[in-house]
Write a structure and sequence with these properties.
The protein is α/β, with parallel strands linked by helices and 162 residues long. It contains six helices and seven strands, in the order αβαββααββαββα. It has a single domain, classed as Roll (CBS-domain), CATH 3.10.580. Strands 1-2-3-4 form a four-stranded mixed beta sheet. A three-stranded mixed beta sheet has the order 5-6-7. Helix 5 links the parallel strand 5 and strand 6. The longest helix has 11 residues.
Length: 162
């Protein structure tokens, strides 16, 4: 077939045939666009049962020196229990709520990212939604980690060129 012969309009044409991948001038821009959340350190993390008494959850936060516990049941994320929850819902009412299950005082329906999302998605959730800690789920909606400000900063520093 000569190059002057017109192409068959019914023949399959691959839309990516003439695709040139994006060229990034900045390694940080490339990392944010091309690297996934799984490439940001998201372990270790701590999960607790939704039935754990509030005082035990507070002890766990303090004892492990963490700011956020992931509340999960059978690996599925139900909520988060953070230092903010302690300050806003527990501190002034501690004696009245200490024996209640954490499910009653946790943050329900937390915003999360999938480990397959772009790394920029994790930054977007922290910046746009105001969450410091963002749960990370796998494609089966199981908890696999948490992204924190320190972990995001470490990721950004790896890709920042001075």
């Amino acid at each position: 077939m000569s190059s002057l012969t017109p192409k068959d309009p019914d023949a399959f044409q691959d839309p990516l045939e003439n695709y040139d991948p994006k060229v990034y001038e900045d390694p940080l821009e490339e990392a944010l666009a091309e690297k996934t959340v799984s490439e940001i350190c998201h372990e270790p993390f701590v999960t607790i049962s939704p039935d754990l008494p509030v005082h035990k959850a507070v002890e766990k936060l303090a004892g492990l020196h963490v700011s956020c516990l992931l509340v999960a049941e059978e690996g599925k994320l139900l909520g988060v229990f953070s230092d903010r929850d302690v300050l806003e819902r527990v501190a002034l009412e501690f004696d009245a709520v200490k024996d209640r299950p954490v499910r009653e005082l946790m943050t329900n329906n937390p915003v999360y990212v999938y480990e397959t999302d772009s790394s920029a998605a994790a930054l977007t959730v922290t910046a746009a939604c105001g969450f410091r800690h963002v749960p990370v789920l796998d494609v089966e909606h199981k908890v696999v980690g948490i992204v924190s400000p320190q972990r995001v900063t470490a990721f950004l520093q790896q890709h920042f060129v001075k």
